[in-house]
Amino acid sequence: MAQILAPSPQWQMRVSKNLMDVGPLTPKMWSSLVLKQSKKGAIKTSSKFKVYALQSENGTVNRVEQLLNLDVTPYTDKIIAEYIWIGGSGTDVRSKSKTISKPVEHPSELPKWNYDGSSTGQAPGEDSEVILYPQAIFKDPFRGGNNILVICDTYTPAGEPIPTNKRYRAAQIFSNPKVIAEVPWFGIEQEYTLLQTNVKWPLGWPAGGYPGPQGPYYCGAGADKIFGRDISDALYKACLYAGINISGTNGEVMPGQWEFQVGPSVGIEAGDHIWCARYLLERITEQAGVVLTLDPKPIEGDWNGAGCHTNYSTKSMREDGGYEKIKKAILSLSLRHKDHISAYGEGNERRLTGKHETADINTFSWGVANRGCSIRVGRDTEKNGKGYLEDRRPASNMDPYVVTSLLAETTILWEPTLEAEALAAQKIALKV
Length: 432
Description:
CATH topology of the largest domain: Creatine Kinase, Chain A, domain 2
Number of helices: 12
CATH superfamily of the largest domain: Glutamine synthetase/guanido kinase, catalytic domain
């Protein structure tokens, strides 16, 4: 396996304290600046290049940065494709880079590739090859240019989807003619928590201690309320650059916790966009020296957990008379509550307690504008007689391929018996 080592200290150029006041140094400013330095600056020379090592306490200018920002398009048609897939835990993202001979516009133009599945918990060592099938392309905000990010799913050499390949089953559901006709829309609210690197404690919290109680942090502003806004903003712009259908961000109820929303997205696209956004967030937090967690209850006690609320509608729900379709969908969801809960993320029982804006994990409920229910219906939906529903049960670490396809399957393809339907209608007391 190839390894990439971090730049050594010898590559770092230290800049004096008074020079840092002028702001970031561009290559042009750097060239001008070193020519004006006094003899106190230590100058090392060779027959090929010069390195100006300026001693400083405060900042560093790393010349590797210049190479990272190189625009190679004038010199080659080749591009870098970052192949991304989901690892053996079902929540980790993995990736590796491949040179492609020219820019591409569709995944079908890309070759299949492979990786060592024994190192990701997805194959035995004696038969470790797993094949990557390119499925969706996004622009690469880290490398820029024509370089791309490639969302892949995973198969055996014989072409069978491996057990962690949840996209394959989702694609089958979303390609069903009945599902296609209903044009299922999804809007996914991905919550996440930022942790300090060394102590694995939320960003902005005193080490081993607690901030003030929840209240001022949600959508707040100020250094004593908001921690990690630069990461949230960086993700926002990276998603827009990549072509991810991000629709907003906000600070969450627990300090150090954030949310971004993706959608409305149609069918399988919702899962592709969430997984790519998660990959971008992992890369951004990696660069920022902060740890990302999608644990649904990262801090026990009187603190909100982290969910992945999924807003959902079909063509029938969005049309006149759609409210009746929404209530029928809720009825079907009530009958398959256990099936959905079992597929909605690991550790979700620690979050769905009936407190902190959640419903109890064992009890299905719905209500208008009620964030303490399993399914919430908006006031506008009730008023207009059409719209969407919000499934508030999924955990922050849920697989969006699983959740979106299961919602479509339950509400479009699955048919309950008349007896079960009647019993469920009585139980959850559906009202017009």
